[in-house]
Amino acid sequence: MSTQMSDIEKDYAGSNGPETSTVPVGEGKYDIDDAQYDAVFGAQEEGHVNYRSVGWLKATIIMLKTIIALGVLAMPTVLSATGGVPGALIIFVIGLLTTWTGNVVGQFKRNHPEVYSMDGVGYVLAGKWGREFYSVAYPAFMIFLSGSGFVAISIAFNAVTTHATCTVAWVVVAMVGTFALASIQTLNKVSILGWIGFVSVMAAILIITIAVGIQDRPSAAPQVGPWDKDISAFNSAGTFLGGMGAVCTVVFSYSGTPAFLNVVGEMRKPTDYNKALYWCQSIVTATYLTIGIVVYYFCGQYLANPALGSAGVIVKKVAYAVALPGLFVSVTIYTHVGAKMIFVRLLRGTDHLTSHSFVHWAVWLGTVGGCVAISFILAESIPFFGDLVNLIGATLGTLMCMVTEGWMWLHDNWDRRHTDKSLYYRALVVLNVFLIVAGIFIMITGTWSAALSIKTSYSAGTISSPFSCADNSNSV
């Protein structure tokens, strides 16, 4: 049996002592479906944590909850900003592109079984500098997503309880609950929560969709006399930045793709990954299109953002109450996958990675606790956190779900240009170059749009104070 190790494995072996976490099989390759041996977690030993335990159906649910949260309720605003036809096309095209980037994630994992998360991707693409960059960028992105989720949970609690207590108290509740749930060790166990979260969010979406369809008019519309929804197939009054803001919203809503690396890394049969991916992307795209088209058609210019407030106070309370478990699960997954990347990097190459040792639990709980604490501090200490999340989404979100995957595919397939002259190969080269160029363009324009939004918020005086107790649910 060959003992050939990849560059990543040699680097870990050099930094952590003898490599104990990687078991090569075959002629210098790994059997990626062999659940007894893994290029990241090593030999599966009795009494140790079995990370490789996620089936394809559970993987689908985890991936769905990585993507679908209350961001789905921003889809009607995409159609409002661009018009019905361009908005639907933007959602559909971004759905197709992120399906391809998700496919690239699976290909890259098969080609580089030793990669678990984005730090490993960075190492393969750009050596130690790439690993350090993604070791910061990926957890930071997940921490900002978690902080955004904390704010959303506080909005939900304020909406349901009519602001029964200080908003910071609700964020503390979100932080404590997330720490407890995200500390679950494996994605297989987290998937149980995924089912609850998926049903919760889909039920909330169904409630608001039915409510806006059967009500006489949206809550924000004039309640007596004639009213005009002002819906259009094409919004001729839209601006370039408004359109790019809509594109960024959709890209951000699909930006869970990098977390798919964690999912395929813990699947029992990683070759089933594409099945989970296609089911996930199909459900997500269908959901985004349905909620976007239906709510925009019935509400038009009188949309609330998020859309849960479009059908009046009572429906808003019910919908947020139903959505709360789904919000907690989304934040749990963001925190879990971000912390897991740090955890694996710190303990990889040692027996503590899978054994129930004191070091294992201290590092794992410390990593989760650190991520949750930073998310809380960021969410509460930055007055324009919502706009900042949009800025982070435009930069890191686009980088993670478009630019990096284009680079990953070109890295693994660029040498084929000397031997593969087929139209199919050339088309894939063009597609992945387009992903990189389009992603950089979206990053630039999205950053511009988010910066202007922050400036406008300051000018309008809508920026709140840090750690404010004020009710944050009135505008939604």
Structural class assignment:
mainly alpha
Query: How far is the first residue's CA from the last residue's CA?
Result: 61 Å
- Looking at the structure, what is the overall shape? globular
Question: What order do the strands of the largest sheet run in, or round the barrel if closed?
Answer: 1-2
CATH architecture descriptor: Orthogonal Bundle
Attribute tags:
2 strands, mainly alpha, globular, two-stranded antiparallel ribbon, Hydantoin permease, 1% strand, 476 residues, disordered N terminus
Descriptive notes:
- By secondary structure, the chain is mainly alpha-helical.
- It has one domain (53-222, 237-348, 374-460): Hydantoin permease (Orthogonal Bundle).
- Helix content is 67%, strand content 1%.
- The chain contains 14 helices and two strands, in the order αββααααααααααααα.
- It has helices at 7-16, 56-67, 75-82, 84-111, 118-161, 167-182, 187-214, 240-253, 260-265, 273-299, 313-347, 358-381, 385-413, 423-460, and strands spanning 37-38, 42-43.
- Strands 1-2 form a two-stranded antiparallel sheet.
- Helix 5 (118-161) packs antiparallel against helix 11 and helix 11 (313-347) crosses helix 12.
- The termini are far apart.
- Residues 1-5 and 12-28 have low confidence and may be disordered.
- Residues 54-449 form the Amino acid transporter transmembrane domain.
- It is a multi-pass membrane protein.
- The chain crosses the membrane at residues 61-79, 85-105, 136-156, 162-181, 193-214, 234-255, 276-298, 318-337, 358-379, 391-411, 423-444.
- InterPro entries: AA_transpt_TM.
- It is found in: Membrane.
